[in-house]
Amino acid sequence: MRGGQWLRATDGMRLEGAAGSGGPVHPGFCQTAGRNSAEQATLHRDAIISAPATCGTPKPTDVRIHSGHLSAGYQFAGLEYGAECYCGNRISSSRTREEDCNLDCKGEKGSPYRNVRNRGCFQRPKNTTAAFLVHSVQPNLTSQSCVETCTTRELPLAVLRRPDCFCGYVSPLFPLHHPAEEAHCALANSSGPTASADLDYFQVYQTPVQDSRCTDRKFLPEKSDTLVALSSFPGAGNTWVRHLIELATGYYTGSFYFDGSLYNKGFKGEKDYWKSGRTICVKTHESGQREVEMYDSAILLIRNPYRCLMAEFNRKCAGHLGHASEQHWKSSEWPEFVSSYASWWASHVLDWLKFGRRVLVVHYEDLQGALFPQLRLIASFLNVSVTEERLLCAESNQDGHFKRPGARQHGFDPFTPEMKRLIDGYILTVDRALRDSNYTGLPREYLPR
Question: What phi and psi values does residue 266 have, to the nearest 5 degrees?
Fold first, then answer.
């Protein structure tokens, strides 16, 4: 059983002054949070910060932490993942590297709100009054002022077409599934003359506010008689898909293993016995006839083996969200890893196709390209009725804290010609097995050229 990574970095600051005095904040130390920091007298989680913190806007975040925790009588405050706050009067864990706290935030680099995401340009909904909860007219409207307006109202979408700023949620009236060319919004928001047709387009931003319509989760109200596997080769995105399933269905997922770091990040089904029947599905990387036949049905998650192997090697070298160093890639460890793991990628799929009683094949790349219909398909397979609003919410919150940031660019190709011949042979074998089992073959991007 793999062990979880218990240490996490917390960005800390010292608070000075009498309670409620608004004394100075002294940022600048970074330390690891203990394996159970919420239960220690070190940095206790506090509910004072209710809205997500805005990474890249240190003044509002520091002020909020400062005023709340100082008034509660604490000396230190720390921010974890840019959103969860801990406070206390003693720090027992060791100081760590500043880089561990200087994490990249989601969104546009250089923007005033680093975790604001530009969702793109979209056609105006037929009924803006019904589609949005807030409408304000701002003669000098900017994207920043609209985002600030909607963030203040604690709404996740900021939608603008000068001079109008709208705030709301992704919904069936405004699903954000068909982006338009950015040129339409550039014209609609310019100060010059604008064609009437371009006024029908809105620029959409995701604010730092989390869409909370799908964040409530629970165990199954009644123990299930059937056991559903969420099966994948390591590195195929199993944790990310668990996150999506929990958002879409509202039920916790379980695991054949136990990873303390995932439990601490909100996967409460992680501690449950995998056969408890209280979770909607169970993560597993196992294969072989006996292991497969323990489950009544399975979602078989498949990812491009080149991506899988790199993701799993990154995890082994640097944890769930880290990247292996160039030294790792150029060591003997990497070719040995490929030699042993590439065949496992193929045998894992082949075993589940051969011995699985009822199998839904899901390709990681299809989730990336068309998440909404794939989530609907998965929910149907799990026999869970979900609303369109919940699926749209899951789509908006798709990354969470459980997906490694974009691949680090290498100055070289880590796969040698010999490795490619080996992996390409396994790709052809799996593609043929899928077709022989009446499934769609592998995505074309997998296939050797």
Answer: 115, -5
Confidence band for 88, pLDDT divided at 50, 70 and 90? confident
- The answer to whether the CB of 205 falls within 8 A of the CB of 121 is no
State how far the Cα of 403 lies from the Cα of 171, in Å rounded to an integer.
Answer: 24
What ranges do the domains of the chain cover? Answer: 8-100, 117-210, 214-446
Average pLDDT, the chain: 80
> Which residue type is seen at 68?
G
pLDDT digits (tens, 9 = 90+) for 426-439: 999 999 999 999 99
Long-range pairs of 141-144 with CB within 8 A, sequence gap ≥ 24:
141/165, 143/203, 143/205, 144/111, 144/112, 144/113
Residue 28 has pLDDT above 80, yes or no: no
72 vs 417 pLDDT, higher one: 417
Beta-ladder partners of 206: 117, 157
- Angular region, 152: left φ>0, alpha ψ -120 to 50, beta rest: alpha
In the CATH hierarchy, which top-level class contains the domain 214-446? alpha beta
CA distance 373 to 102: 36
281 vs 255: CA distance, rounded Å? 8
Residue 115 has a pLDDT of 74
